[in-house]
């Protein structure tokens, strides 16, 4: 792990996402990719291998940057970096990167997919690819759009890709394992033939599979054909377009889920760059985890406001067709919705058009307007449950209540449930108390049914398809991230002494080889601000300046030293260590750095001595010289010594 951090160039990795400019000696800065800003507050310090944004408070090393920017898990980020720098990872027992596969095998399969994607894209431009180009043109996609999304064409021959891969040095077992081939009684043949092909990529940009659309009437296969389950491709874990949408998703804290490849293309080309689609399967729990990681959600409820205005936190927006199938998909999503911590919305085109058709019929602005017209998923599900009943009659209203009450009872967020109960009362034209009683009764019936107590179903109301049966269940506890020390310390840093403590810790972390030896003598309580005291304690626990100088001398940078301090710090303090290690120093002239560091460090020593002098004077004032002259004279001698040391420090400094 440490080797990956040290060998991966953080300025190169970050530089692929952020335009970095010099910000003084050893520091670079740019606009933060994780929040909107006009003035750059995102800093990278290559010597220590860390980054920190002084605007939003995010920070970490090269691994955490990839995790946040690409939505990767820790192991995935490490594997990606290791592959990029050519480092072979050794896994502890039970810690293989993927079940049943090693790194070299995975790389061969990824390379086969990369070669196949390039081959398909080239074939689209040939005379044989005319049918594919016509399909795209009929839907408003030109050559530039095809190139942007990597769309290609699989020739009609039985072994076109097979021969191409063999010619590129791939073995038959590798070709079969990739999922790009099928096997019959006569041997191996191309899985995709005479079809328009979309590459399906992981969040890292690696192609792991393909989706193919039938073009010719004599093709007996299904309309859409995807890669089968392989070591690389798991349909429940991939989202088409995630590689193109990931940065905008992280920035906008929004993801738009559509139903097809052309819908993703249409959405992106219509100014909705956060669109993705599932690949041959319904949106499920694995997709939910990917979305949650990318949007960066936290908290408990799936929705925290009832209007369709600006959201609090991230947004997940489902765009479904307006037909019955689209409404059914939205109802299914309700079952998954409560796994989300962000607000979840639905937008349904009333005339049954998908985003691709809508873009063609009414222009790209209509797609953006559809997204803007979203409504909370809970509201959509409840209203959908009411559409089958005549609310103009008493019988219709009662039956509608019986159908909708379990939906409201199924909302796990206890703060939202009564609010939707009140809204349901308004839609039905019934009194709130009656509706709330029905909701409570439906919740009890659902709980009894979940326990197997069929006699407890009460009114016997059926749950709409996809609605969670349990009304309650334990709500996940709110995950509160450690407080951002930068924000918490802004007030303290107006204090001159606090500013000295902060700046001294910055130089101790960034330039320990220039810090004078006097700082080594500082006690653990040298810093008065609790957060800075905790950092100083971590510095001492990591070995102090003696260890810092040794690490810098042996490695040539401060990275190993800062890593040691971060490891010694407690979890809430570690982000502050990162912030201080990345903070730009006021002095950026190389020839003046040594004097600057010395003056800052000695100011901290002076502050510490001043605090000790004040304590010594207070102790003397509380002592009785006549009662214990020996102790008094010892305390007085200590005061004289401290004042002498402070005087010499100020004279020499």
- Radius of gyration based on Cα positions: 32 Å
Q: What is the strand content?
A: 5-15%
**Subunit organisation of the chains:** single chain
Q: How many angstroms does the end-to-end distance come to? A: 42 Å
Instruction: Return the average pLDDT rounded to an integer.
Output: 82
Which secondary-structure class do the elements indicate?
alpha+beta
User: How many β-strand stretches?
Assistant: 17
- Shape summary: globular
Q: What summary fits the major beta sheet?
A: 6 strands, mixed
Number of domains: 5
| Fraction of residues in helix | 40-55%
Query: Please, how many helices?
Result: 27
Main sheet strand line-up: 12-14-13-15-16-17
Low-confidence stretches: 96-101, 297-312, 454-488
Describe what this molecule looks like in 3D.
The chain is of the alpha+beta class and 653 residues long. 49% of the residues lie in helices and 11% in strands. The chain contains 27 helices and 17 strands. The protein has a six-stranded mixed sheet with strand order 12-14-13-15-16-17, with helices on both faces. A hairpin with a 5-residue loop joins strand 9 and strand 10. Helix 11 crosses helix 14 and helix 17 packs across helix 19. 42% of the residues are buried. About 9% of the residues have low confidence.
Task: Please give a handful of descriptors for the protein shown.
single chain; 653 residues; 5 domains; DNA primase DNAg catalytic core, N-terminal domain; Dna Topoisomerase Vi A Subunit, Chain: A, domain 2; alpha+beta
């Amino acid at each position: 792990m440490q080797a990956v951090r040290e060998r991966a160039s953080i300025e190169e990795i970050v530089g692929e996402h952020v335009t970095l400019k010099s910000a003084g000696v050893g520091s670079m800065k740019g606009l933060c990719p994780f929040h909107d800003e006009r003035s750059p507050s995102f800093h990278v310090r290559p010597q220590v291998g860390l980054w920190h944004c002084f605007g939003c408070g995010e920070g970490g090393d090269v691994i955490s940057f990839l995790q946040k920017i690409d939505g990767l898990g820790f192991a995935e980020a490490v594997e990606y970096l290791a592959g990029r720098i050519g480092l072979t990872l050794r896994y502890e027992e039970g810690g293989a990167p993927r079940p049943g596969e090693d790194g070299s095998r995975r790389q061969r399969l990824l390379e086969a997919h990369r070669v196949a994607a390039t081959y398909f894209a080239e074939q689209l431009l040939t005379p044989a690819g005319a049918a594919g180009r016509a399909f795209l043109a009929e839907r408003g996609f030109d050559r530039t759009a095809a190139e942007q999304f990597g769309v290609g064409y699989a020739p009609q021959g039985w072994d076109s890709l097979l021969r191409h891969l063999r010619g590129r040095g791939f073995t038959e077992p590798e070709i079969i394992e990739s999922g790009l081939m099928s096997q019959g009684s006569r041997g191996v043949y191309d899985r995709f033939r005479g079809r328009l092909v979309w590459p399906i990529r992981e969040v890292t940009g690696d192609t792991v599979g393909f989706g193919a659309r039938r073009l010719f009437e004599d093709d007996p296969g299904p309309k859409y054909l995807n890669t089968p389950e392989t070591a690389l491709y798991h349909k429940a874990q991939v989202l088409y377009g995630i590689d193109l949408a990931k940065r905008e998703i992280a920035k906008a804290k929004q993801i738009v889920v559509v139903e097809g490849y052309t819908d993703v293309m249409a959405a992106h080309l219509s100014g909705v760059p956060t669109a993705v689609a599932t690949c041959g399967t319904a949106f499920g729990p694995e997709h939910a985890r990917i979305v949650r990681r990318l949007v960066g959600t936290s908290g408990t409820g799936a929705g925290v406001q009832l209007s369709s205005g600006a959201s609090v936190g991230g947004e997940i927006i489902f765009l479904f067709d307006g037909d019955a199938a689209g409404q059914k998909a939205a109802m299914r999503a309700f079952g998954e919705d409560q796994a989300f911590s962000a607000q979840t919305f639905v937008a349904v085109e009333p005339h049954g058009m998908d985003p691709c058709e809508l873009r063609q019929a009414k222009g790209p602005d209509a797609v953006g307007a559809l997204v803007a017209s979203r409504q909370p998923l809970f509201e959509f599900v409840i209203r959908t449950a009411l559409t089958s009943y005549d609310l103009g009659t008493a019988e219709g209203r009662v039956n509608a209540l019986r159908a909708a009450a379990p939906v409201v009872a199924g909302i796990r967020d206890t703060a939202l449930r009564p609010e939707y109960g009140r809204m349901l009362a308004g839609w039905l034209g019934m009194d709130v108390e009656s509706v709330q009683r029905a909701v409570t009764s439906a919740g009890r019936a659902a709980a009894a049914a979940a326990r197997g107590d069929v006699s407890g179903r009460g009114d016997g109301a059926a749950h709409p398809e996809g609605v969670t049966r349990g009304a309650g269940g334990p709500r996940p506890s709110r995950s509160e991230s450690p407080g951002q020390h930068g924000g918490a310390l802004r007030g303290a840093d107006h204090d001159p002494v606090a500013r000295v403590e902060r700046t001294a810790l910055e130089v101790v972390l960034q330039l320990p080889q220039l810090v004078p030896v006097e700082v080594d003598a500082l006690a653990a309580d040298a810093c008065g601000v609790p957060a800075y005291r905790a950092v100083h304690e971590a510095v001492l626990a990591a070995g102090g300046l003696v260890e810092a100088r040794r690490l810098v001398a042996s490695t040539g940078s401060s990275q190993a030293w800062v890593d040691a301090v971060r490891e010694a710090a407690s979890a809430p303090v570690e982000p502050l260590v990162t912030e201080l290690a990345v903070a730009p120093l006021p002095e950026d002239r190389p020839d003046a750095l040594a004097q600057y560091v010395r003056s800052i460090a000695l100011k901290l020593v002076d502050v510490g001595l001043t605090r000790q002098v004040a304590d010594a004077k207070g102790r003397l004032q509380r002592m009785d010289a006549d009662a214990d002259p020996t102790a008094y004279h010892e305390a007085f001698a200590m005061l004289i010594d401290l004042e002498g040391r402070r005087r010499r420090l100020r004279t020499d400094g």
